Amino acid sequence: MSATTLDARTALVVIDLQQGIVALPTVHPADEVVARSAALAAAFRERGLPVVLVNVTGIAPGRTDGGTPGAVEFPAGWSDLVKELDQQPGDITVSKKQWGAFYGTGLDLELRRRGVTQIVLAGISTSIGVESTARDAYEHGYNVTIATDAVTDTDADAHANSVGRIFPRLGETGSTEEILALLPAAG
């Protein structure tokens, strides 16, 4: 469903826009995703709405063909958020070691303390961190909106599946421009 409304207490949750992730080859240019996410963050801050900046600092403890947990070492600066997000002291920061931003973090508590009832999602990767967080937000009872032009993936088919099949079942989708147009009603 296309984005139609934003709750009065909506938070922006930006997934994994960090040095190591934005350097990966993606379906849509990462710099465009970063620019749109930064525009959303600035607009949310301007209206006094929460901005959550999420980064991934490791891998979950489950064994996969991606490697043994604890055996992966990331280069220095890999998990540093990109400067374009203009991180502010009032932003909520969440570091995770799994795909979604809710499990094993204080994100739900931080949002509930602020009376948040809806989240807008942006970031990389669409089918991994963004989709996992969208699913968890939906299951936690939040209204979910995804800024579809502010997400991308390393796999075109996975991105298309998330945007076309999964996200519409979890909430609303819209472009950054459409979401920005809805913000005045939320403030």
TrEMBL record:
List the Pfam families: Isochorismatase
Tell me where on the tree of life, at the top rank, the source sits: Bacteria
Per UniProt, the keywords (alphabetical) are:
Hydrolase
Start and end residues of each Isochorismatase-like domain: 10-178
Is Hydrolase one of the keywords? yes
GO MF term (any one) = hydrolase activity
* Entry-linked InterPro entries: Isochorismatase-like_dom, Isochorismatase-like_hydrls, Isochorismatase-like_sf
> What name goes with this protein?
Nicotinamidase-related amidase
Q: Which organism is it from?
A: Actinacidiphila guanduensis
The major lineage groups are: Bacteria, Bacillati, Actinomycetota, Actinomycetes, Kitasatosporales
